[in-house]
Amino acid sequence: DSVTSLYLKIGDKEYTRQDLDKYRISTEVFEVIFPNNAVFGATEGASKAVADGYYVITEPLAKGNYTILYKSSLICPEIDCIEPNFAQDIKYNLIVE
């Protein structure tokens, strides 16, 4: 709920924050098992987790070259936030054959 901006462009098709909100999906709580030396310093063993994100499904792209731009940011003012301020500005060059 801390997302402050969200933008996606695939070729000439732009998706605004309002367009992308319908693609937000979250899971119920589930259990994961972290191995020794897990990423982000997670403690080895069982832990509870959830997934929450924007998962866009599009029509298949016609053959050609595409640029995909993805931008997002969030602010989490809570004291226990792992990453209280976060921003992404990603560009993919995609060749569809």
Care to give the gist of this entry?
With 97 residues, the chain is mostly beta strands.
Describe this structure in words.
With 97 residues, the protein is mainly beta. The strands form 3 sheets. It has a 4-stranded antiparallel β-sheet. It is extended, with a radius of gyration of 17 Å. The N and C termini lie far apart (38 Å). The mean pLDDT is 89.
Key phrases:
about 100 residues, four-stranded antiparallel beta sheet, mainly beta, 8 strands
Number of strands: 8
| Overall 3D shape | extended
Give the low-confidence spans: none
Can you summarize the main beta sheet?
Answer: 4 strands, antiparallel
- Please report the distance between the alpha carbons of the first and last residues: 38 Å
What is the helix tally?
1
Helix content: under 10%
| Strand order across the largest sheet | 2-1-7-8
Layout of helices and strands, plus pairs?
Layout: E1 3-10, E2 13-15, H1 17-21, E3 24-26, E4 30-34, E5 45-49, E6 52-54, E7 64-75, E8 85-96
Antiparallel strand pairs: 1-2, 1-7, 3-6, 4-5, 7-8
